[in-house]
Amino acid sequence: MSSENITSVARESRKHTAPRDFQAQANIGSFARYRKLYAESVNAPEKFWAEQAAEHLLWRSMWKKVLQWKAPHAKWFVGGKLNVAENCLDRHLGTPRENKAAIVFEGEPGDQRTLTYKQLHQEVCRCANALESLGLRKGDRVAIYMPMVPEAAVAMLACARIGAVHTVVFGGFSSEAIKDRINDCQAKAVITADGGWRRGKIVELKANVDRALEATPSVEHVIVLERTKNPVSMQTGRDVWWHDVVSRASHRHKAKAFDAETPLFILYTSGSTGKPKGVLHTSGGYLLGTTMTAKYVFDLKETDTYWCTADVGWITGHSYVVYGILSNGATSVVYEGAPNHPEPDRFWSIIDRHAVTIFYTAPTAIRAFMRWGDAYPKKHDLSSLRLLGSVGEPINPEAWMWYFKTIGGGRCPIVDTWWQTETGAIMISPLPGAIPQKPGSATLPFFGVVPKVVDDQGKEVPKNSGGKLVITRPWPAMLRTLWGDDDRYTRQYWSDYPGIYFTGDGCRRDSDSYFWIVGRIDDVLNVSGHRIGTAEVESALVSHPSVAEAAAVGRPDELKGQALVVFVTLKNGVETSEALKETLRQHVAREIGALARPDSIRFAAALPKTRSGKIMRRLLKEIAAGGAVKGDTTTLEDFSVVASLQSEG
Question: Which of 285, 346, 401, 582 is the most buried (most CB within 10 A)?
Answer without folding.
Answer: 285
